[in-house]
Design goal:
The structure is a single chain. With 332 residues, the protein is of the alpha+beta class. The protein has one domain. The chain contains 5 helices and 14 strands. It has a 14-stranded antiparallel β-sheet, with helices on both faces.
């Protein structure tokens, strides 16, 4: 199945859970998730919750790592605005018109923050979701993550905490680095257990990849393929393929006045170019040609993302952008 967690969890033995993922942070965390066995729950109920929290965590890190771009240069590119340091608030629900699998309803909120500092980029995320399955069982998932990436894209630090029904299920912590832009790198995991991962030359960290995606969109490219290290793939990093649609500065939905768009979102995006984007994540050792995870969204020229669809194969979530709080750039 497209959602890697879905397949492994249905083996009914271990809790394959969140990583830091697609886009955002340090490899092989899915394997480490086998450490968490929900023995206190009944097989059916726990299996559904395993699937849910693992897949949602993947989506969170996807958003957290990259959907808010990178401001490596710290200033506007000619003809384009600078990356906007901001907090974004999304309502999360099941995606309309998509398969729901064993999930009958979802109600939640996702908050992400992306800020430039004088030495790098800080990302903070949290997603809290209340899920009900077909049997009427409910579970509360609370996942928070943070990361820092140096402006030159060579250093990366991350951490994540995951709770299920208020119980701490897992925490992850690590860092990765490259000696030079053209050299190989290393990721060091400290939690849940120590592990070293070798990264070949050319692998990007999440924000670096999303900056590449934005640059490609601005340049009129229709397809972008890169290797990305984000901490979720059993093969240590992902092959990420993005399809980019035609750009426009018209309000989404064709309404010239941007009706029904929250005022803060309209203020941050009005008049800007945006591109419809679909991003697919493949494990390096994937032989079936099926992505582990896919997401679609509107990517604005200042790095804001709106109307995310997080597709896990068995079900899909919709994250609707409700509010943008802009931050001032650092005075370095």
């Amino acid at each position: 199945m497209p959602c890697h967690l879905w397949k492994n969890l249905f083996e009914m033995v271990f809790f394959m859970i969140l990583g830091l993922s697609p886009v955002v942070q340090t490899a092989n965390l899915y394997k480490l998730l086998h450490l968490l066995h929900l023995s206190k729950r009944s097989a059916g109920k726990s299996r559904m919750k395993k699937i849910w929290i693992g897949c949602v965590a993947t989506g969170l890190m996807v958003v957290s790592g990259g959907l808010f771009g990178d401001a490596m240069a710290g200033a506007a590119v000619a003809g384009h605005p600078p990356m906007l340091s901001h907090r974004a608030i999304y309502n999360v629900s099941l995606a309309p018109g998509r398969k729901h699998g064993q999930v009958s309803s979802v109600d939640g909120r996702m908050v992400t923050e992306w800020q430039q500092t004088c030495d790098g980029l800080i990302s903070e995320q949290r997603i809290v979701t209340d899920m009900r399955d077909e049997a009427g069982e409910t579970s509360l998932s609370d996942i928070s993550a943070s990361s820092w990436e140096s402006r030159d894209g060579l250093q990366f630090r991350f951490s994540m905490r995951q709770r299920l029904d208020h119980e701490l299920m897992a925490e992850y912590d690590g860092n990765a680095s490259f000696a030079s832009a053209l050299g190989a790198g290393t990721a060091m995991l400290r939690k849940p257990e120590e592990k070293e991962v070798k990264l070949p030359a050319g692998v990007l960290f999440p924000s670096g990849y999303m900056q590449s995606l934005l640059d490609a969109a601005r340049g009129g490219q229709k397809l972008l393929t890169r290797k990305v290290f984000d901490g979720t793939s059993e093969s240590d990093y992902y092959q990420v393929i993005s399809s980019i649609g035609a750009g426009t500065n018209r309000p989404a939905g064709g309404n010239a006045k941007g009706a029904n768009t929250p005022k803060s979102v309209l203020a941050a995006t009005s008049g800007l170019m945006w591109w419809p984007v679909q991003v697919s994540y493949y494990a390096i050792d994937q032989k079936e040609g099926v992505p582990e995870f896919e997401m679609a969204f509107r990517l604005y020229d200042n790095g804001i993302s709106a109307n995310l669809i997080l597709d896990y194969g068995g079900f899909a979530l919709f994250a609707s952008l409700q509010r943008i709080d802009a931050y001032k750039p650092p005075d370095c």
